[in-house]
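Suppose a colleague, Dr. K., hands you the sequence of a protein chain of 345 amino acids and asks what its three-dimensional shape might be. Before reaching for any lab equipment, you can write down a predicted structure in token form. Begin with the sequence itself:
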Amino acid sequence: MTTTGKGSPPQSLATRHSARSEGQARPQADAPTRVGFLMAPNYTMITLAAAIAVLRMANRQSGQELYRWQCVTLDGHPTPSSDGLRLVPDCAADALGAVDFLFVCGGYRPERHCVPPFLAALRRFAKRRANLGALCTGSHYLAAAGLLDGYRCAIHWENADSLRAQFPTVQVSSSLFVMDRDRYTCSGGVSSIDLMLNLVAGTHGRTLARDISEQFIVDRMRTGQDPQRAPLHQLMEARNQPKLMEAVTLMEANIDEPLAMTEVAALAGVSRRQLQRLFHRYLHCAPTRHYLDLRLERGRLLLLQTGFPLAEVAARCGFSSVRLFSKRYLQRYGRHPRQERRDEA
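The predicted structure, expressed as tokens, is then:
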């Protein structure tokens, strides 16, 4: 999993990015940028493969080996990805030499694998002054190790609410990726392509990054301002319903203390009857149904991704009691919340 070559050792990212002009590459230095990928159990293979592919293509397109990478696990033994595939690691994490970047590769149910030895290994890399990054749910490991306090970060949208709830000092973004000082995080899927392309552009110029994009048939290099999920108007049959989008946005922002439908309608600038017509026509349900589904979806994610007591999960979803939450949950998902949590344990 290792490649060698020549390239530029990372300085501080602020220095490197400010030194670039549009389309100009940085002069060649003596050593390649060294990147480590620490694979956690159930890591997302596509996100790791996409990140490495950008580095490989940077070497190919530049005609120089700008990047050198290694894939490691905590103990040096293969660990399964979320699709069951196992890469043979180069070595154990503690045997990895000095790196300029270390990316934690996360995936499904990161909270199950945040064991003390894994977190201790991350803290050791932080003491070496490595730039730390995370792919997919890798941000959960960095947060659990106390390495994201006061930082902005990205994580897959399914895990964003639980990360906010468990680590309130971490600023969780809904963006595709976040580059905040010496922390580089992306949300999963193919967003690692965008993160790595922006890293390449900042170090070696946007021309090289665009060349890589063309090789991957990527129509544009997305930025940190791009959201993870498609805007509501792209998911609806109608394209121009700002009142409906405003109503849904209000619902999503008020899960723990739900608004009355009269309040939602008034804040969105429509009558309650107009609001009902918009929901029925474009989302094919009543506004109360949509709101309830949003709250129950939040509850399910908190139930599966945190150890919060059932009463706290219910409260965070705007339910006045566990009994009411359990009743609505059973109606929506066909099982009791305790059974859901037990079956997923």
